[in-house]
Specification:
The chain is an alpha/beta fold.
């Protein structure tokens, strides 16, 4: 077999360039200055339903974004087919800076952080007064996540026809947290909706609550069926053609510039991502009492000033118990 040396003199021999020379690469990425602004309405298996002006557009994330994911509420830059026609697909090339983020983990020992909603102004914690029984410790966890993420909390107490709200209002009513009490009859005749809407107008509000508290029923009452169908019609990509709360969904509030975001029912609300020093901010009734605490107080030791603060009647003992339970789970996580 004939072999050619390194310095062959035949004119008909063509040397193949090396791999690195065949396709020059660059770190310069397109700026997409002509991209349109969109709002992420829902995310389903890699497809994002976005609102671009008055059109609902289906999009996918550009590879150049890497592992950075867009979530409901994100403001994004979109290029490609923005007509919103059937089978069209646009591309999200940039996620704008977020003003707030609601995060949670599956439990306090789970390091995997899940971003639930971005850019919401407030977090509406929906709790039934009965059937199912209220869970104050879950409320406390939601308040911690709200304050840590830059959202203002709102308490929505449902099913007041089954049980009075007095007990919960004793725990939270004096904290300066806005609250609305509703009954099933008031939801049906519309009187409760007017009170809820007063707290939602002009804001982006994320609704959270465990299953059965009436969260989705409340959202459905706030947003007419026609409006839900128009906003969520692209969800037909799931094969169901309708929204079920297996993923978050942003919906425009009827007759207002506000938005409501319905989220899946919660079984737990882990706070692995929250610094333990931030937990006390969710307890404004206890926080002033920490001024007498020793330096680096864990708030669960003999010299903690919170015991005297509660004994003097400044806060309910149940609130101190809830704080210490939250901090105890954080300490166990840190020690693992």
């Amino acid at each position: 077999m004939r072999r050619y040396g390194k310095h062959t003199d035949e004119d008909d021999i063509r040397t193949r360039p090396g791999r690195r020379n065949t396709r020059p690469r660059t770190n310069i990425r397109p700026k997409h200055e002509d991209a349109a602004e969109g709002l992420v309405l829902t995310v389903d298996r890699g497809r994002l339903t976005c609102l671009v002006e008055d059109r609902v557009v289906l999009a996918m994330k550009a590879r150049e974004l890497g592992r950075k994911a867009a979530v409901v509420g994100d403001r994004v830059a979109i290029v490609g087919d923005l007509t919103g026609k059937k089978d069209s697909l646009a591309r999200i090339v940039r996620i704008e800076e977020r003003t707030s983020v609601l995060r949670r983990t599956a439990d306090d020992d789970d390091p995997y952080e899940r971003v639930v909603v971005a850019n919401a102004d407030q977090l509406a914690v929906v709790t039934a007064l009965a059937d199912p029984e209220p869970r104050p410790r879950l409320i406390d966890r939601c308040l911690v996540a709200a304050y840590a993420g830059g959202l203002e909390p709102l308490l929505v107490l449902t099913k007041s026809d089954l049980a009075p709200p007095d007990k919960l209002l004793e725990l939270y009513g004096h904290l300066g947290i806005p609250h609305v009490v509703t009954s099933r009859e008031e939801l049906q005749n519309g009187t409760a909706l007017a009170r809820v809407r007063e707290q939602l107008d002009g804001k982006i509000t994320a609704f959270v609550g465990h299953s059965g508290v009436g969260k989705t029923t409340l959202v459905n009452s706030l947003v007419p069926e026609e409006q839900r169908r128009t906003t969520g019609h692209v969800n037909a990509v799931t094969g169901r053609g309708r929204h079920t709360t297996t993923s978050a969904l942003a919906l425009p509030l009827a007759g207002s510039d506000g938005w409501v975001i319905d989220t899946p029912g919660l079984r737990s609300f882990g706070l692995h991502h929250v610094d333990p020093s931030q937990v006390i901010h969710a307890f404004p009734d206890l926080e002033p009492g920490t001024e007498g605490c020793p330096r680096a107080c864990s708030h669960d030791e003999p010299d903690c000033a919170l015991d005297a603060w509660v004994a003097e009647g400044h806060a309910d003992p149940a609130r101190l118990y809830s704080l210490r339970r939250l901090l105890a789970t954080r300490e166990r996580k840190e020690g693992d």
